[in-house]
Amino acid sequence: MLHADLDRLAKTENGLSRYLAQTIRPWITYSMQTRNLPGCWIHDVLTIAWLLDPSLATTAEDYLDVSLEGITRGMTCCYGRDTLRLNIGIPEPKGAQVTILQSIDNPRLISLIEHYIQNYGA
After folding, report:
1. Is the pLDDT at 38 greater than 60, yes or no?
2. Is residue 66 a contact partner of residue 75, using CB atoms and an 8 Å limit?
3. Could you give the strand order of the β-sheet that contains 98-104, starting from the edge strand earlier in sequence?
4. Residues 6+ apart with CB under 8 A from 76
5. What pLDDT, on a 0 to 100 scale, did the predictor assign at position 79?
6. What is the pLDDT of residues 60-84, one digit of tens each?
7. What is the CATH number for 53?
8. What is the model's pTM?
9. pLDDT band at 3 (very low <50, low <70, confident <90, very high)
10. For position 78, what pLDDT does the model report?
11. Which of 10, 67, 113, 117 is the most buried (most CB within 10 A)?
12. Rg (Cα) of the chain, in Å, rounded?
């Protein structure tokens, strides 16, 4: 999300638009300053939007794991059961595959958010 997107969403005067402007604007600025991005990612909003309209994103099914120890702590690893595996001390994936969002139709995402903000409380 860009500041311009948030400015457009904030034009709808209601509690939801005010809340989003107050909470997302600092995050946009932070992302611009620390990550050299033109805006910020809004993961939680994207997840809900994708549940409402799965055509917003392309997806893949795979196994994910998050490293909890050592130098790779916090790193997300993506690997399938059928991919080439060398015996290097990495256990085989356990659990179920997850849906991974790969690319987003951002204009449609912003339009969907705008629709729900405009109809909030209606």
Report:
1. yes
2. yes
3. 76-79, 57-66, 98-104
4. 64, 65, 66, 67
5. 74
6. 998 888 888 899 899 888 877 666 6
7. 3.90.245.10
8. 0.79
9. very high
10. 80
11. 113
12. 18
Going by C-alpha positions, the residue among 115, 113, 119 that lies closest to residue 6 is: 113
CB 109, CB 2: distance < 8 Å: no
Q: At what angle do helices 106-118 and 43-52 cross, to 10 degrees?
A: 80
E strands present in the chain: 57-66, 76-79, 98-104
Structure confidence by residue, pLDDT tens digits, 25-37: 999 999 999 999 9
**What type of residue is 13?**
E
Q: How many domains does the chain have?
A: 1
Tokens encoding 104? 């987003």
pLDDT given at position 15? 94
One-letter amino acid identity for 71?
I
The residue type of 7 is D
Rounded to 5 degrees, what are φ and ψ at 103? -140, 150
Instruction: For residue 112, give its domain range.
Output: 3-118
Query: Which residues are bridge partners to 62 per DSSP?
Result: 98
* Nearest partner of 67 among 90, 41, 98, judged by Cα: 90
How would you class 45 by CB atoms within 10 Å of its CB: exposed for 0-12, middle for 13-18, buried for 19 or more? middle
